[in-house]
Structures are given as C-alpha cells and as structure tokens.
Amino acid sequence: MSKWTIELDRGACIGSGMCTSMAPDHFRLDGGTSTPINETVEEDEAVIDAAESCPMEAILVRSTDGTVLAPQP
Amino acid sequence: MEIRPYPFTELDNLELHPGYLELQRDEPVARVRLPYGGDAWLATRYEDVKTVLADPRFSRAAVMEPGADVPRTLPTMPTETNILSMDPPDHTRLRRLVAKAFTARRTEQLRERAQEIVDGLLDEMERQGAPADLVEALAMPLPITIICEMLGVPFEDRDKFRSWSEAAVAITAFTHEEIIAANQSLRVYIAELTERKRAEPADDMLSVLVAAHDNEDRLSTEELVSFGVALLVAGHETTANQIGNFVYQLLRHPDRLGELRADLSLVPAAIEELLRITPLGGSAGFPRIATAEVELSGVTIKPGEAVFVNNVVANRDPSVFDNPNELDFHREHNPHIMFGHGAHHCIGAPLARMELQVAIGTLLKRFPLLRLDGDVAFKKGRLIRGPQALSVRW
What we know:
Helix content of chain B: 40-55%
Distance between the termini of chain A: 25 Å
Distance between the termini of chain B: 52 Å
Helix content of chain A: 10-25%
Radius of gyration of chain A: 11 Å
Shape of chain B: globular
Order of helices and strands of chain B: EHEEHEHHHEHHHHHHHHEEEEHHEE
Radius of gyration of chain B: 21 Å
Shape of chain A: globular
Order of helices and strands of chain A: EHEEEHEE
Number of helices of chain B: 15
Number of strands of chain A: 6
Largest sheet of chain B: 6 strands, mixed
CATH topology of chain A: Alpha-Beta Plaits
Largest interface: A-B, 20 and 24 residues
Strand content of chain B: 5-15%
Oligomer: heterodimer
Structural class of chain A: alpha+beta
Strand order of the largest sheet of chain B: 1-2-3-9-6-4
Strand order of the largest sheet of chain A: 4-1-5-6
Number of strands of chain B: 11
Number of domains of chain B: 1
C-alpha cells in the first residue's frame, strides 16, 4: 500500500472542525486551526473526505509520486 | 442542582435572555427540562460547546434510534432522517455530494451574480419609493434567488415553498399539525422536482443528487428528498432572516453604523461581528446524545444523556472575546461559532457570508440616509429569529 502526504494551508484554515470530525485519526485542532497528526499516512478514504469537504480547500492530499488526489478542481 | 425550563423566553428586539449569560458564568453545564422528553444538559461555554459539536463521543444519529424519547420542543419525535441528524461516515457520504459547490472559492464566483440581484432589487425598491419593507424588497428575494439557481428549483414556485418553509421552522408559531403538514408538503414538492430532474437533467445540484442516487447508489430515495428539503429551507431562511436582523442591529447602533459608512472596507469584519453577536436561534436547537462518559467543565455527562448547546451564548464567552456584549468591528481575532463547529459546520457558511456582505454593503453605500420607519416586530416561536417586516425610509 502506498503512502499519502497531507499538506495543510494554515493561512487558509478557518478551524471549522470539519476535518477533525470527519477524520479524527488524521487531524487535530491546534490553537484554532487544524494540523495533520502525521504528514505521511497510509491510504485512507477519510483523508480524501476531509480534503473534499473543507470549505476553504485548505487540505491537499498527494500520492507518493506527487499527484494531487484531493481536492479535485 | 436546579432544573430550569428550557428554552428560555424569547425576548423582544433580538435581546438575549440574561439567564443564559448567568448560566455561562455560574453553571456552565446546567440541567434543563424541555417541554417534551424530559431533562437534558445545556452547555454555554465556548470550549464546551465546541467539544459537544465536534467530539465523536457526541452523536446526532442517536436521536433517531427507534423508541428514543429525546428531550425536545415538539410533541412528537422526528421520523425522517436528514443530514442534520446523521453522524460520520453516513453524514460524510451525503455532505461530499454537494460540498464542492459550497466552498469559499466556488461561492466567490457567485458574488457578481449576487451583486446583480441586489442591484436589481434595490432599483425596484427605489422605483416604488419609501417606505419599503426591506424583508420583502431585499432580505427574502436575494437568498431565495441564489439557492433556487444553485439547486435548480423554479423561482416561480417561491410563494408556495416559502409558506411551507415558514411553518417548517416553527416550534410554537404554528400548530403541530401545521408544522407536520408543511414538512410533508416540502417533501412532496422536492420529490416531484427530482422526478423532473430525472427526466431532464440540468446543471444544478438536484440533478447531481438524482444522478448520485440513480447511477452510483450513493444515497437512498429518502435521503435524496430530505437533503433537497434541507438545502432549500436552510439555504434561505437563515440568510434571509440575518439580513433583516443585521440591518436592524446596525440601525440601532448609530455609532457603529456611522463607522461602517465612513469605511466600507470594514464590511466583512462587520458581518463577522454581527454573526457573532446576533441571536439567530430562537429555540433549543438540536441535541447531541453522549455515547461515552465525557466531562464538561467538571460535570460528568453519562452515555445516553442529551446535551444542548447554545452557540450564541458561547459567542459571548469572556474567556474568548473581550467585551463580549459589545459590537466591535475591529476585533483582531473573531473565532465565533455562529455557523457551528465540526462535521455539521454550516455547509452554506461561505455563501451566507458572501450574500450578507453584498446585501449589507450595497444597501449602506446606496442609501446613506437609511432609517427605520416605525417599530419592528419580530417573529416568535420558530427555530430562527428575524423581523416580520422592516419598514425603512432613505
């Protein structure tokens, strides 16, 4: 199973709590904005759900080769 | 521990019952008794409210379990599940279907259209002359037009669904039978509309939902209808009432209004501050059920117990906001939770922000002498507070 990377744009994040509720194993709120618990993770659809549902599109998920998996344009 | 009847009395003119701030100070997790279904907890502090809204140990779906007798404001338990009564991952499955259309980026693309609508509505208001009812002239038609266009609901049907929606968000403003009937009418209406989208798909959200149901089996027929109803009702009742509420708040605070008129670049910050301070919710809101033992401000919530939160009161928590009862357009940091927090954070938040900025900003720019024409009466006994009418001159 390949690994994914999570990038979080803390400047864009509004701390809605969307990702921390949808993917509590992968995100936590820190000082009002979200932060990935680990920047490299095993494949997990919950991470895609979080990135696709973020109102600010502040979460970027990439595959090992750098391809953007979410959010879709 | 004293058990207080809940919700507290709705005061006139968007005032907040002082009992809420007393509870926040003295008894942040209080015992309350609802009109039906017994007792529950009420959390009023900012951090506690965020925990209840986002921590997976609190469930919305548990409210819908067969035989559940949850503390509530209406005599009967809800029978139809909708997105507001689901937990992840079911909630995620539905929300993702439309999340893209509501992002800040997509919403920004609608700003020009919102401006065009507002300009047209204010042209018409000016043509008809003062006094005008701002609720009918601007507050209602702007969000209704936008949500109709996004969902693919015919604007010509607005009188029909507005009257149902009006009753569907009622608690005591209509009889229980009227509320049930209005909800049923909305369901039938949306169900018929989805049939039309099935026959003739269009570039709109209802067509997307129909395709997700038909082709990908991503939602059930009941979920499809409930989701359509929720998007239509939540898509206009909230923003429409807030436009009226915000104009009223500004006209009641001449100093703040003057400040804003002198510098319209403050409009986005002013909207955030009005969102923070305006008590939109007129009732108890939606309870969560604890699925494990959780401690909130020293109080142990046991599994199975219901917890209500009040985000309007949380937005006045002095540990987060300096001078919390003051309207201040210069707050450096305004992390209000008017749109909620966690999985149910309002999907329409970016849209509501944009519509409010355009509506309020344009109104102030265009009518520097805008003022109230007589007293304002507010709707009561509903989930959402707002003026019945807002007669203005300019």
